[in-house]
Design goal:
- It is built from one helix and eight strands; from the N terminus they run αββββββββ.
- The protein has one helix spanning 12-34; strands at 39-40, 44-48, 52-58, 67-72, 75-82, 99-106, 117-121, 124-130.
- The strands form two sheets. It has a four-stranded mixed β-sheet with strand order 1-6-5-4, with no helix packed on it. A four-stranded antiparallel β-sheet has the order 2-3-8-7, with no helix packed on it.
- The longest helix is centred in the first third of the chain and has 23 residues, at 12-34.
- The N and C termini lie far apart (58 Å).
């Protein structure tokens, strides 16, 4: 049985860690509420080069007409739809996703929104966001 050392059991570090975990759980629940029952979120990678910020979405088997990419303020919005394929027989296992797909990403302030371009190849949607060189910080008057 360990002896009580006199130190407080709940130090500031432990408290901060728990608060961070609670915030991330609440954020995940908040995002889950944005989706309808038949909506899922495609997997995405985001990385940065010297000139660009690049987002890559896994969208295998999607038709190009079924993918919509929009910019709303500083948010990039991806919406896509993939119908379930009709097969004869009964399913034994279903792991592939179908239905509506939705993903929102906040774009950093140093991106030139008018120069964003996208390409779709081999089931991967690649969105190239060129940096503008300057960082714009919105200022609100109170």
């Amino acid at each position: 049985m360990p002896r009580y050392s006199g130190r407080k059991l709940f130090t500031q570090e432990i408290f901060d860690r728990h608060v961070g975990e609670m915030r991330s759980l609440l954020h995940a629940l908040e995002l889950r509420d944005l989706f309808e029952d038949n909506e899922t979120r495609p997997k995405m990678d985001m990385y940065e080069t010297c000139q660009d910020v690049i987002l890559e979405y896994d969208l295998p088997g999607f038709l190009l007409d079924a993918i919509s990419l929009r910019i709303n303020g500083q948010t990039l919005l991806l919406e896509a739809c993939k119908p379930r394929e009709q097969n004869e027989g009964k399913f034994i296992c279903v792991e592939r996703s179908h239905g509506r797909f939705h993903h929102e990403v906040h774009i950093p302030g140093n991106i030139d929104l008018s120069a964003i371009r996208a390409e779709y190849r081999r089931g991967v949607l690649r969105v190239i966001c060129p940096k503008s060189g300057e960082r714009f910080v919105p200022i609100k008057e109170l």
